[in-house]
Design a protein that fits this description.
Alkaline Phosphatase, subunit A, four-stranded antiparallel sheet, binds calcium ion
Length: 499
């Protein structure tokens, strides 16, 4: 990746008082990665992670080392990011709760940008449940007819992107290398489309959302990515055998030790699962590299803010837990980088606790838009200017009604709906092995953390009738949104100058 070009400082951040008519507003490349935990070179969560392009992106701007999701599941995490409202305020806690019916009047980040003159386009997985009114254009990926034709080819015995070896425990938890090219898969096709967009000279500032679906299950990517992570050498995450002994029942229920973990251990596939996830991360990283190179070579280099985030973490057997859907650090921590030309500098790391809820207000400020009322995050611009800035905003992650987890720079405090608690001291216990919640010495810490939990907890939004299992994830097809930007054309960017 051409890091040097990303650093080009062509313009400075637009002060709020200056309108778009007077100065060129930045473009935004908004990259989402599904289910990517800290197993990246940049965050160092796994020593064998190979993510050179992501690492280069992080090194060329600001890496937030303590960034957390608002919820450890796709739908509620993304809903929080894109509406600027946390789950306890919306009632959208789980994947089976379509967000738009629950929030009919919510003006999403994309809608807000549209109303201020941005050209808003996207592709891949951004929302869990698609919302056509949020986009001028959307890349739907594969045509339905094309997918059907492919199935027919498969049935006739012609091999296309079929697994070379199959592993896993069933459901969507399967893995194995594919006899396929990068661009046979959705993330490769998405990247080709996104490259065309970043290369174009647009007549107004753009917001381009690119949502990668790997490393989400199922873990099937071209064979070369498996070969880059030889099975014999794979290291398992560090675990403590009796780690769940000091976890309250509500936490054990989230860990589900009798579920995936039992099956993966019984079938001797722990290393295979780790290999497959690492392979998927490297595949996604290769697509990311192609996109970033294209931007660096384009007319938009130097005028485009690059933001990359993952929607939550992922756990591979720690606390006998797999997937996300828990309130420990491994599921709540996300990858989050920002490259803001003229503002961030190469090699910056910010260790303050930040939330993905902060994205909406941050983007507004960087784009010079008026602060939108009612958003629950904080603009990160002070940290982008100086990552050492004092910052007393612990990051809240919520999984289900009244199950909260709060992370400060030192502590993680968990409080379940039934009142049971966990407390971990990250200065001594980064893997959260020793629950200090019952130790009276920490009563003050607990009280302080508990006082910062939401005072109001919205009741559950309406649920879909189907199962809540992960199979429901990303059920909505990548909709093609017609280029319905007529209202926009009438408005034009200069409209914002009249405010
Ligand atoms: Ca996800
Ligand atoms: Ca423990």
């Amino acid at each position: 990746m051409k890091a040097a070009i990303l650093l080009a400082a062509v313009w400075l951040v637009v002060p709020v008082s200056v309108t778009h008519a007077q100065t060129k507003a930045p473009n935004i490349l908004f990259i989402a990665v599904d289910d990517l935990n800290d197993w990246t070179g940049a965050l160092g969560g796994h020593p064998q992670a190979k993510t050179p392009n992501l690492d280069c992106l992080a090194k060329s701007g600001m890496l937030f080392t303590r960034a957390y999701c608002a919820a450890p599941a796709c739908n509620p995490s993304r809903t929080a990011i894109l509406t600027g409202l946390r789950p306890a305020s919306t009632g959208v806690y789980h994947n089976n709760q379509p967000w738009r019916p629950a929030l009919p009047d919510s003006v999403t980040l994309m809608q807000y940008l549209m109303s201020h003159g941005y050209f808003v386009l996207g592709g891949g997985k951004i929302f869990h449940y698609q919302d056509p009114q949020c986009w001028h254009q959307y890349f739907k990926g594969k045509e339905k007819a094309e997918a059907v034709a492919e199935q027919k080819i498969k049935k006739k015995g012609k091999k296309k992107a079929e697994p070379l070896a199959q592993g896993g425990i069933g459901g969507n938890m399967t893995w194995g290398p594919l006899d396929a090219a990068d661009t046979d898969l959705p993330d490769g096709k998405l990247t080709n489309w996104a490259i065309e967009q970043v290369k174009k000279k647009h007549d107004r500032p753009f917001f381009l959302a690119v949502g990668y679906v790997k490393p989400h299950l199922a873990w099937h990517v071209p064979k070369k990515y498996f070969d880059m992570h030889p099975l014999d050498n794979i290291q398992l995450p560090k675990v403590l055998d009796n780690d769940l002994d000091d976890v309250p029942a509500a936490g054990v229920k989230m860990a589900k030790p009798d579920g995936d973990h039992k099956q993966i251990v019984a079938t001797g596939q722990w290393k295979q699962a780790v290999q497959a996830y690492l392979a998927c991360c490297t595949y996604m990283d290769a697509q990311l590299g192609r996109l970033l190179d294209a931007l660096a070579d384009s007319v938009n280099a130097g005028t485009t803010i690059i933001i990359l985030w993952s929607d939550h973490g992922w756990t591979h057997g720690q606390k006998q837990h797999w997937r996300k859907f828990s309130l420990w650090d491994q599921d709540c921590r996300v990858v989050f980088t920002m490259n803001v030309p003229g503002l961030t500098k190469a090699g910056q790391r910010c260790e303050r606790t930040v939330s993905l809820l902060d994205l909406y207000p941050t983007i507004n400020e960087l784009c010079g838009l008026p602060a939108k009322k009612g958003l629950e995050g904080n603009s990160l611009v002070p940290l982008l200017k100086n990552p050492q800035t004092t910052w007393d905003y612990p990051a809240l992650t919520t999984h289900g009604l009244k199950n909260h987890s709060l992370r400060s720079e030192r502590w993680r405090y968990i409080q379940y709906k039934n009142g049971s608690e966990e407390l971990y001291d990250h200065t001594k216990d980064p893997l959260e092995w020793k629950n200090l919640a019952k130790d009276p010495a920490y009563a003050d810490v607990k009280r302080d953390m508990a006082s910062k939990l939401p005072g109001k907890n919205a009741l559950d939004a309406e649920k879909k009738k189907e199962s809540t299992l992960e199979a429901l994830e990303f059920p909505s097809p990548m909709l093609q949104v017609e280029a319905s930007d007529l209202s926009f054309r009438a408005r034009k960017i200069s409209a914002s100058a009249k405010r």
